[in-house]
């Protein structure tokens, strides 16, 4: 097995063929004491790695330096860029907020293992189910799967994500992936923008196109014999966020610095006191001291004839720096959300919906877009190798899946099924069950009635009694049970929708369906109350009661 050192700011090589566990990391103090005293190569490397703890890429950062860093990254020298981006993710509020929200939104989607709807040639449903169960079990064994998914998603910001497969050794899970160990992006260099990745353990600056092989050697190239490609999960993004984010960050820092200077100069109004004429000789110093206190905003008194002016008061509300900083933030938001969040606020609409709900809906869409790309990476670098090793010669039938589609409206699906069945087009029960999120079964229709004239007349009478025009009333005086049944019939559509929603096992989808029901409540209530059967029954009950009361009333006796 190939091993990796403990996670931290200093690491050993990601793939050293050895049966022994990696040596424990030295503390900073121990490393300094051990330096130059005959320590191992790994300990010496960790000592040299300590420079990163004292390096601050923000010092002297300006647009000229930033462009030079971008140019180096185009050649595959990523170390300085990624160390700078690490600081920016901590210091730039809008970028930090996006990273945190992206991670939360993707992780909230959950995950599963599914079978292809259309199986490849030569595959059977039994084969597909075996693969699905096996792949699900392999993912369940990964101890840091949620963290790994987040790191793969963050390639959108950083440009790439590289994770190494650490496997169990011995026991019942021998050979299964135990951890998808993510390696920090600043420990990689590349032989050109589209070349191979090389492990740059001590984050050397400037090593890229044409110098990777000479500097790091073949053993540190992903795809070499020491670092087989199948041992890694690699995701690359053609146009990551970091260029826009870092340019905005530099401009934002400049704007904030100027904004702070503006507030320092103009935040507190400075006054100029005009002293009265003919100050008594010897009192000049007292007058000057009083004037300075008043001009600095301290309470005090001035002699008669004095005046005070505030020359900076007219420019206190004309600061351009706040809008300048907001413009940088909006650039990052627009790029990070694919233009879906064009503003930092959104207008609300609909029942119980407002800006928070609007933003939540947008973030769900964004998370699904990112989740689809995570799916593609894991399907390629994890699913296919694992299934090929466990089921040699079989076509791949199962795949890892983060839900990336909106839930389907169950009422609309049911209406569509009824329409198809009404024109003798039978639907597939399994497909409808999968789309509805509940297990459905097809009920065998009742046997046709016996061809007996008497039975036919009886069935006809029952049918006419049971199925009738809404304008026709039941024979006889309706009872309270008839009224209750009519109310139940009027509310049947609402009951069906609530029952379908209650049967949904996914809590997020159930919440979405309940919200959709609330959003359409006005229209539904109009449909229920526009022509209710219960109103007709109640009207007949009241009419019959009124007639009965009038017939039973004793005529009044007329006195002469």
List keywords for this structure.
two-stranded antiparallel sheet; three-stranded antiparallel sheet; 21 helices; 560 residues
Folded structure, characterized:
The chain is mainly alpha-helical. Among the domains are: 246-349, no CATH class; 407-446, no CATH class; 478-550, no CATH class. Helices cover 50% and strands 8% of the residues. The chain has helices spanning 28-34, 41-49, 63-74, 79-91, 93-108, 125-140, 145-153, 155-158, 212-216, 242-266, 284-295, 321-336, 355-390, 410-422, 429-436, 453-466, 480-490, 492-502, 507-519, 521-530, 533-552; strands at 2-3, 16-17, 112-115, 160-167, 177-183, 188-190, 197-199, 232-236, 272-274, 307-309, 398-401. The strands form five sheets. Strands 5-4-8 form a three-stranded antiparallel sheet. β6 (188-190) and β7 (197-199) form a beta hairpin. α4 packs across α5 (93-108). The protein is flat, with a radius of gyration of 38 Å. The termini are far apart. The relative contact order is 0.08.
Strand order of the largest sheet: 5-4-8
Low-confidence segments, ≥5 residues, pLDDT <50? 1-13, 16-37, 342-354, 459-474, 556-560
Number of strands: 11
Main sheet properties = 3 strands, antiparallel
- Structural class, by secondary structure, is mainly alpha
Q: Residue share in helices?
A: 40-55%
Total of DSSP H or I helical runs spanning 4+ residues? 21
Strand content: 5-15%
Please give the alpha-carbon distance between the first and last residues. 121 Å
Estimate the global geometry from the Cα principal axes. Answer: flat
Task: Give the overall pLDDT as a whole number.
Answer: 75
Using only C-alpha atoms, the radius of gyration works out to 38 Å
